[in-house]
Amino acid sequence: MKKLLLKSILLLCALITGTSSSWAAEGDTHDFSQSISVVLNNGASISSINIAAQSYPVKEVIISYTHNKSLTGDFVTASCSVGGDSWGSEMLTCKTTTTQSFTGSSATGAIAISFTNHRTASSGQGTFQVTNVRLVEGAASTKVAQPSFSPAAGAVEAGTTVTISSATDDATIYYTMGDNPADPTTSSTQYTGPITINEATTIKAIAVKAGMDDSNVASASYTIKEVVHGYAIDFEKPIAAYEDWTITNIGIHTSGLTKAHSGSAWGSNVNNNDNATSTAIIQTKEKVAYPGTFTCYISKESSNTTSSSWKIQTSSDGSSWEDIATLSSMTQNTWTLFTGDIKKAGKTNVYVRLYYNGSNAKRAVDDITLTLEPAEPVAAGETVTLTSTSNMAGWRTFAPVKANQNYTVDGTTKVYYASATADGKVTLTEIADGVPANTPVILHQTSGTTITLTETATSISAPGSNLLQVSTASQDLGTVYRLGYKSSYGVGFYTYTTNSAPAGIIYLSSVSTARDYLEFTFDDETTGVDDVRSKMSDGRSEYFNLAGQRVAQPVKGLYIVNGKKYVIK
Fold first, then answer.
1. Range(s) of the chain covered by CATH 2.60.40
2. Is a pLDDT exceeding 90 seen at residue 341?
3. Contact 509, 542 (CB under 8 A)
4. Exposed, middle or buried: residue 419 (CB in 10 Å: 0-12, 13-18, 19+)?
5. Which of 38, 104, 286, 490 has the most CB atoms around its CB within 10 Å?
6. What's residue 40's pLDDT?
7. Where in the chain do CATH 2.60.120.380 domains reside?
8. Which DSSP category does 187 fall into?
9. What is the distance between the alpha carbons of residues 54 and 445, in angstroms, rounded to a whole number?
10. How far is residue 463's CA from residue 289's CA, in Å, rounded to a whole number?
């Protein structure tokens, strides 16, 4: 009686305030109509059902289904999970119109229902239909939400940082980690910030909060994946390791030729079953701002003489391709140098690929190298105009070609030098007066992509600890860092490997700890801000430009948000 009276009072309040449609209580039901219909012949697949997390806890999930044939043996299995927790699997009944229920502790989170068809006969298996899913509300949970990990468990690069969070506000998280860690308790290590993964490990975590039950234990296992950054492929690593390339119908071979061009392996035009294919592609994942020369070595495993060719190609959009060079003649067990001068062809900001087209006989490729040119050389004259490609968001490097010449910059360009590196970051310190003579710098145009520099007779003081350097012709740099862009991280310094760099490459070689990517941090004592990010965390913050003025509609550039400096690209 008391429960009924309380419900009536709450309903009356909801009607008065106009919110009756959102009022809910334990035991209330919510239907989600479905239209799955599958003839079960030949083990046909059945679509899964995914229902987004609701505002109420769920204690029961009920599936309504029909089937029109009498069968013997296993039929269809349904499996259900709520909020990532399994609520079990059940074998459904054939030739019936009925329901199947799954129950668990009241939980919030997405509802996922999957089906497995066990029928293998080619005919006569009937039609299976799912018509509705009903959710039954449970009591409000008193358990803290189970922690989640970002990124999710799996193979990651060394140096990846993992964050742990709980959907319960103000919950405290404790964790353990190792090869086979024990379940965490409140005596375990308290989580206070991202965890760096440098070797294979498992992390277990719980979340606790006063007045609530501790969460379930969450677990995530990580392995370290082999990653090779840069525009060189020697085929000594698994194909998936070459992070900056998309590679199609190329497999690693160590037999079929007398020897590799170098090392012990090469690439061959084969599919996953090691059968030769008539096409194969090795393509850059991102556009290359200033490609130089593409070189590789071609041979063939098969003596097949059917016409076939390799092409070096470029494309501005990734769909229409233009030939830079073609190689049609290749000899079994002999490596032939194949090269294409992309710079000479005048191609900039393009995708680059090696394309095989011909017979489905096994051919071979080894030691691919794509050199990168410095940004367009600076010509002599009073004014120098530079551009930054759109994905670089106004950032680029610059080194004066004219000896002992200083430059001023336009009012919307900032000049920086690299003053330090630590913890995966490179510190940028501003040079207020312009570009000092004989000094490589980083420029940032804050309101566009065009940068104007003007020669000046005024001497500009050079920094005493600039880590940026400029290559000489054919210099063996080994592995260094160059300013660039990738969609996964944005603008920053990325690894670059070459044993024969062209003159004018601006690079960073001194880092305290080797990383694949270095983000920017700013040495800015006047404001005390020292952070840069490529994304904003919410849409509620106020934006201010570097002059302290509030900006209602920010566009590309540098802004201060909540006391931190951000880049909008």
1. 148-224
2. yes
3. no
4. middle
5. 490
6. 92
7. 26-137
8. T
9. 46
10. 28
In the chain, CATH 2.60.120.260 sits at 232-372
Whole-model pTM over 0.85? no
Tell me the CA distances in angstroms from 137 to 32, 140, 177, 440, one per residue in order.
Answer: 14, 9, 36, 65
pLDDT in tens, 351-363: 999 999 988 889 9
More confident residue, 17 or 57: 57
In the CATH hierarchy, which fold is given to the domain comprising 26-137?
Jelly Rolls (2.60.120)
At 208-241, the pLDDT tens digits run: 999 898 998 999 999 988 888 889 999 999 998 9
| Tokens read off for 488 | 């996964």
CA-to-CA separations, 373 to 75, 188, 218, 399, 498, in angstroms, rounded: 63, 52, 48, 13, 12
Whether cis (ω within 30° of 0) applies to the bond prior to 151 is: yes
Specify the pLDDT at position 15: 40
Residue 467: partners with Cβ closer than 8 Å, 6 or more residues away: 417, 418, 419, 420, 421, 426, 508, 509, 510
Residue 58 sits at φ, ψ, to 5 deg, of: -115, 135
Residue from 512, 477, 478, 518 nearest 494 by CA: 518
Confidence bin at 106 (pLDDT 50/70/90): confident
Q: Quick one: fold of 148-224?
A: Immunoglobulin-like (2.60.40)
Q: Quote the tokens at residue 490.
A: 């944005």
Distances, alpha carbon 229 to alpha carbons 177, 186, 198, 226, 237, in Å: 29, 41, 17, 10, 12
Q: Which of 392, 425, 424, 387 is nearest to 286 (CA)?
A: 392
The two three-digit tokens of residue 323, written as one number: 């030939």
Residue 154, strand partner residues: 222
d(CA 218, CA 148): 7
Mean pLDDT, residues 43-61 taken together = 90
Asked if the 232-372 domain carries CATH number 2.40.420.20, the reply is no
Q: Which two tokens stand for residue 321?
A: 């391709």
Residue 186: what are its φ and ψ, rounded to 5°? -70, -5
